[in-house]
Amino acid sequence: MPIDQSSNLYYEVSGPETAKSIVFLHGGGLAGWMWRKQVQALQAEYHCVVPDMPEQGKNTRTDTTPFTTEGAADRIAQLIRSQAHDGKAHVVGLSEGAQVVVSLLSRSPEVIDHAVVSSAILRPLWVTKFYPRWAIVWSYRWFVAPFKNNDWWIRLNMRGNGISDDYFADFKGSFQETTEASMLNMMLAGFRFRMPAGLEKADVPVLVAAGRKEYTAMKQSALDLLKVLPGARGVMVSLGPKSSLVKEHSWAMTVPDLFTATIKAWIEDHPLPAELLPLSL
Questions:
Q1: Are 25 and 17 in contact, with CB atoms under 8 Å apart?
Q2: How far apart are CA 172 and CA 110, in angstroms?
Q3: Alpha helices for 56-200 (secondary structure H)
Q4: How much is the pLDDT for 242?
Q5: Helix, strand, or coil here: 24?
Q6: Nearest to 59, CA basis, from 8, 5, 100
Q7: pTM
Q8: pLDDT, tens only, 188-210
Q9: Which end of the chain has fewer CB within 10 Å, C or N?
Q10: CA atoms of 257 and 190, how far apart (whole Å)
Q11: pLDDT digits (tens, 9 = 90+) for 215-270
Q12: Nearest residue to 187 via CA among 136, 149, 151
């Protein structure tokens, strides 16, 4: 896994040297591995660039700059200019990665062709009141640091996040690479992110998605984006009556084929999968 010299980020790359680039931005606390099934399905047709975001994944080994959403967006813009074909890419983000895409749309829209923004929270969540700075620090000290070699605990955390055993080795690696500082900075950045200025100038096709069972604030955030982004369309992910918030939030891993089909349809300007519903509260 090389380091891009312009952004100082670890990344993986695959696919044809002449194909259009797709950049995948992972959720908080994970790493580029979460996109493996999308890359496997798309790399025959697309040039896939998959970074670990600042202070996460393999970047916890070398990155001493505290993670911020805006700083991550600027470094992803540098990565795109350096590694994407023609200095421009389709950009796909989930959760905290989606927040980075939103920031990127406000700061460097010229590097984006099409964007997929899935579950980007821009409003306060009620659960965040239980996680002030000290609570995050002690959560790490009590529930992460002592259990980095405990496979049972790691699998329990995976299940709590709707992640299947297919990703166990990778999730364990990210769990072990997480530091107190990286967890604190990642969580605070995600909690504090709000609608950035300048999005009305981002004339980019943007697919905005949220899960039907996700928090109301998440769906409201998606609707907020639709109001300000001139080229946006909203969809709701509904995985059936037996689904859950975490499964719909993590749909890139729980229903990877559907997520992949959605990416491909959006960037190729084809009809979206019928399983996706119009976005509403």
A1: no
A2: 36
A3: 69-83, 96-107, 133-143, 151-160, 168-177, 180-192
A4: 85
A5: strand
A6: 8
A7: 0.96
A8: 999 999 999 999 999 999 999 99
A9: C
A10: 27
A11: 999 999 999 999 999 999 999 999 988 889 999 999 999 999 999 999 999 999 99
A12: 136
Length of the chain: 281
pLDDT tens sequence across 80-128: 999 999 999 999 999 999 999 999 999 999 999 999 999 999 999 887 8
Measure the CA angle with vertex 218, ends 182 and 32; round to 5°.
40
Q: What gap in Å lies between CA 75 and CA 84, rounded to an integer?
A: 13
Rounded-to-integer distance, Cα 230 and Cα 62, Å: 38
In order of 20, 54, 279, the CA distances from 260 in angstroms are 16, 25, 19
Q: Give me 47's structure tokens.
A: 């040039």
Instruction: Return the structure tokens found at 50.
Output: 């998959």
Measured at the alpha carbon of residue 241, what is the angle toward residues 28 and 31, in degrees to the nearest 5?
A: 15
Can you tell me which residue has the tokens 């994407």? Answer: 84
